């Protein structure tokens, strides 16, 4: 069983930055893609970013240039650096493990999910 634990969320003013972390259990972390999703109140869960096992990354078009995903396989951790935050970035952010070494933006391509961490951006 894989466990994912997110941290780093909180309250920040517009224009500020946050770095989210997601620590994963298990010995095969490096073999799987990892992703970040978010869900705002009343909205569907949406793709934010993903990093494949080879380190290649992809982002939601609207977030390119502001968010950066990275992974540290030695620490079994994936990060999401968020800059120039806007009130519309307010959501619960979830990390997820892909079903294979590479994954895309569809949540169905991910099999394990963390409990989420709240990010609130005030105007």
Please describe the topology of this protein.
Blueprint (H helix, E strand, L loop, with lengths): L3 E4 L2 E4 L4 E7 L9 E6 L6 E6 L5 E3 L7 E6 L4 E6 L8 E8 L11 E4 L3 E6 L1
Parallel strand pairs: 2-11
Antiparallel strand pairs: 1-3, 3-8, 4-5, 4-9, 5-6, 7-8, 9-10, 9-11
Short description, anyone?
The protein has strands spanning 4-7, 10-13, 18-24, 34-39, 46-51, 57-59, 67-72, 77-82, 91-98, 110-113, 117-122. The chain has 123 residues and is mainly beta.
SSE arrangement, N to C:
EEEEEEEEEEE
Instruction: Count every helix, treating DSSP H or I runs of 4 or more residues as helices.
Output: 0
Mean pLDDT: 97
Strand content: over 45%
Note the overall shape. globular
Number of strands: 11
Low-confidence stretches: none
Radius of gyration: 13 Å
Structural class: mainly beta
Helix content: under 10%
Distance between the termini: 40 Å
Largest sheet, strands/sense/barrel: 7 strands, mixed
